[in-house]
């Protein structure tokens, strides 16, 4: 039973799980598009991913590379989800900064990598579009919808009623 109780620390808490799913959606998009369009490891622009593809083959090499590259991201998300409760008065500011950083560095760069196979434009344009798409998903899912679900107004009462979900 002790093992199962410790497993909960391997899953991000609260909105951090949603943030993790959004980010890993971008990582999966990059993986799938690359697997579909990459016919030879030499076509891959990332030298580390290319090396894994040369050693293990396109699909296994790319999968291993993505698992290795995504593990630190997942670890940071898990750590932050469990530690953010200790920074209550900074929580909103910290989460916004983290979303901006992860949106640009993870979602933007992965979207750039995926779209490089499909869209011949500058890296900055593709990365900026990925960043905007991430924010257009993250802001409603992580900031607007949770507040709407927590607070319901009773039309007969002037005081809002808080509901726990």
Task: Give an overview in words.
This protein is mostly helical. It has helices at residues 2-7, 15-37, 47-56, 58-83, 91-115, 123-150, and strands at 151-152, 161-162. The protein has one domain. It is built from six helices and two strands, in the order H-H-H-H-H-H-E-E. Strands 1-2 form a two-stranded antiparallel ribbon. The radius of gyration is 19 Å and the shape is globular. The model is unreliable at 153-157 (pLDDT under 50).
Tell me the layout of helices and strands.
Blueprint: H1 2-7, H2 15-37, H3 47-56, H4 58-83, H5 91-115, H6 123-150, E1 151-152, E2 161-162
Antiparallel strand pairs: 1-2
State the secondary-structure class: mainly alpha
How is the quaternary structure best described? single chain
The string of secondary-structure elements, in order, is HHHHHHEE
Largest sheet: 2 strands, antiparallel
Instruction: Tell me the number of structural domains.
Output: 1
Radius of gyration: 19 Å
Strand content range: under 5%
Helix content: over 70%
Gross morphology: globular
* Number of E-type strands: 2
Strand order of the largest sheet: 1-2
